[in-house]
Design a protein that fits this description.
Mean pLDDT: 94
Radius of gyration: 23 Å
Largest sheet: 7 strands, mixed
Bound molecules: pyridoxal-5'-phosphate
Oligomer: single chain
CATH architecture of one domain: 3-Layer(aba) Sandwich
CATH superfamily of one domain: Type I PLP-dependent aspartate aminotransferase-like (Major domain)
Structural class: alpha/beta
Distance between the termini: 16 Å
Strand content: 5-15%
Amino acid sequence: MSDEVNGPFGDLFPYSRRFGKTAQLPEKGKPREEILAELQQMSFEENNCWKTGQCSGTMYGGDEGHFKFLNEVFSLFSHMNAIQRDMCPSATRFESEIGAMTLDLMHADAVNDGKTPCTAITSGGTESIISALLVYRGIGRERGVTAPEVILPVTAHPAFEKGAWLFGIKVVHAPINPETTLVDVDFVRKNVNDNTVALVGSAGNYAYGTIDPIDQLSEIAVEHGIGLHIDGCLGGFILPFGEELGYDIPTFDFRLPGVTSISADTHKFGFSLKGSSVICYRDKSMRRHQYFTSESWPGGKYHSPGIQGSRSVGILAATWSAMMSMGREGYLRQAKAIFETSFAMQDIVLSHPELRILGNPTFCFSFTSDKFDIYHINDCMKKQGWRFNGQQYPNAIHMCVTRPQTQPGVVDHFAKDLAEAVAYANGHADEMPASAAVYGGLPGGDLPGMREFVKEALCSLMDATMDLPQSEKVMA
Ligand SMILES: Cc1ncc(COP(=O)(O)O)c(C=O)c1O
C-alpha cells in the first residue's frame, strides 16, 4: 500500500485495492454486469452508514422505495436536455409546476404590491444563492451602484461568500447574539449604505437551525428600497409544514413585504434527488438579471435562464415527481415525525446539566458545554457510529434531524450513547478532544497564521480527492 493511498488525509481511495484504479480509458468496454456489480457493492456499503439514523442531515429522505421511484422517473428523462424545449416540452411542465408549488408554500399569494412572483430551478442551494446575488448585483447596477455590498449574518451559508467572490460583491458580516444565535439587527440597520444591494437572513441557518428576525430585516429592506434574500435552502420545505402543525415558526416568506427572494432546496426536505433547488423572486423583473442571451454567436442565438447551460430533464422530472407523490399530506406527516423526534432529542440533551442548546431551534439543533469541550462528546459518540456536524466559535455539534432519525429506537439509542458520552467527557475534561482539531476552534482561540494553515490544508485535501496520485496511474 503506497503512502499516497494512506497519505496525510487517510485512505481516500478505499476501493482501489478491490477494484483497482483507472487512469486511461479501458481499451475494450467492460461488461455492464461487471460494472453494475462493482457499483452495487459500493452503493450498498455507503448506504449502510446512514440507515441506522445516526447521521446528522444530508440524507433527508432515506426511504429506499421513494429513491427507487425517483430513480425510475429520472431514467425516463435523464438523457434529455432541458435547453432543447422543442424536443422536451416536459421540461416546461416540470419546471413551471415545481415553481408554482414552491411559490404556494412561500405564500406568494400574499404579494399584493403589483409584483408577480416567479421561480427558477437550479442544481442546489449554492446555485440558488449565487443566482440571487447575481440578480441583486444587476439591480444595483441599474441604480448606478458600481461597488455593491451585501450584509450577511456570520451564520449565513458560505455559498453567499462564494457568490460575492464570483461577482465582485463586498460582504459585510453582521455579528449574531451569542445567546439567541440570531443576527444583530441594529448592526444591519447601521451598516446599510448607498452601495448595499441586499440583506440576507436564514430560515434556518445551517449551524444552529435558528431563524433570523426576518420581520425586522424586512422593515429595513423596505425602508431603504433594497433586496432581502431569505436562505430557506435548509428550512424551506419543512418550516412551512412546522407552522401548519402549530410549532412556533416565525414568518419568513413573501407575507413579509421586504422579502424579495427565497432559496428553498428540493434536494433537502423537498425529498427529491440530489441536484435540485428553487430560487423564488418576488417579481419577474428580478429573474431577468439571471438570464443570459448571446444574439450574435456563430453557433446560433443562445439563451439560458441561469448559470448552467445544458441540464438534464431527469432531475426536473424527479423533483416534480417527489412533490407530486408526497403531496401536502405526505410532507406534513414527515415534518411531524421530524419535529417530534428533534424535540425528543433536545429534551435528552437538556436532561444533562452539563449541556446547553444554542438558541431556540426546531428540527436542527446545536449543543455545547460550558463544563468541557463538546468534542469529547463527539469523540465518544463517533465510536458508537454517530456522525454529527461540528461548529466553531463556540465549539458545538449539531444534529439536523431527517427521516432516518424518526425510525423506532433511534431516540433511545441517542439517549443511551449520550449519557455514556457525558460521563466520558466529565472524566476527560482537562484533555484535548481528538475531533476538535478537525471541526472546532482550539481552546483560547486561533493561533497566528492558523486560518491560512487551515485553508492550505483544506485545499490540499481537495486536491487529494480530485486527482489520481501520479504513482497510482494503473489500468484497472
Ligand atoms: C442553510 C443552507 N444554505 C445553503 C446551503 C447550500 O446548499 P447546497 O449544499 O445544496 O449547495 C446549505 C447546505 O447545507 C444550507 O444548510
